[in-house]
Write a structure and sequence with these properties.
The protein is of the alpha/beta class. It is built from 8 helices and 11 strands. β1 (3-7), α1 (11-23) and β2 form a beta-alpha-beta unit.
Length: 232
């Protein structure tokens, strides 16, 4: 069974989430301290993290960035703010998904299970009938079996969400993929996800590849339509 790490300074909410996840059959590690949660991730990598964005020791963004330096494990962040800026900031810093407080228990479980399914699909050698194990598109190489992305021979570390979105675009270069199509691919039809979420993931994909090649411009935006991958 998947092991979930939950970190939140609100003890009542932490206990509520822990009880819910245990009832659903998950193993749960709980922390009120951001630093202790970070040390736990270093010592024993969980399958997924659920985290608050506000701590006394460090900001949630700082914790998120430090976790991302350790691993690209799936992360859901909990936000007390319903603003677009707060949502975009968390996604740009590396979260796979966000949930605004207060939230229903069922919403949390559905988002969590969707993320875990996505990771398992991407890592499996049988990642789906429509997903070949490897694709090469110009300087881009992607290996679904080993969850590996290379640009000009250099590894690019992508989250599960970013990997699936880029894979979908690159497997048929030149074809336009709508935001709705990419949202369904990444999140399924169990939950509603705003189109801005896909935009944030696309920005992170571009940014990560530009770290190894500043001239990268192959993921193109077609305003009003969606995105496409340009092979050359």
């Amino acid at each position: 069974m998947a092991r979930i790490l939950v970190v939140d300074e609100n003890v009542d909410l932490l206990n509520s989430i822990s009880d819910l996840l245990e009832i659903e059959g998950f193993d749960v590690d709980c922390f009120t301290s951001a630093q202790e949660a970070l040390e736990s991730v270093r010592e024993n990598l969980p399958d997924l993290v659920v985290m608050e964005m506000t701590f006394e020791e460090m900001s949630g963004v700082e914790l998120l960035q430090k976790m991302r330096r350790i691993s690209e494990l799936p992360i859901i962040y909990l936000s007390s703010k319903a603003s677009e800026l707060d949502e975009v900031l968390g996604l740009r810093m590396g979260a796979d998904d966000y949930i605004t407080k207060p939230f229903s228990q069922r919403l949390l479980i559905e988002r969590l299970r969707t993320l875990l399914r996505r990771v398992n699909m991407a890592k499996s050698s049988h990642a789906g009938a429509n997903m070949a194990s490897q694709i090469t598109c110009g300087d881009l190489n992607m290996d679904a079996e080993h969850y590996l992305t290379l640009w000009k021979g250099l590894e690019v570390s992508l989250t599960s969400t970013e990997f699936l979105i880029l894979y979908e675009l690159a497997k048929q270069p030149g074809y336009v993929r709508s935001r709705n199509h990419l949202m369904y691919l990444a999140y399924g039809d169990e939950v509603f996800v705003d189109g801005r979420t896909v935009d944030s993931h696309i920005k992170r994909i571009r940014g990560k590849i530009r770290r190894v090649d500043p001239s990268f411009s192959h993921v193109e935006t077609l305003y009003g339509l969606g995105y496409k991958y340009r092979a050359a």
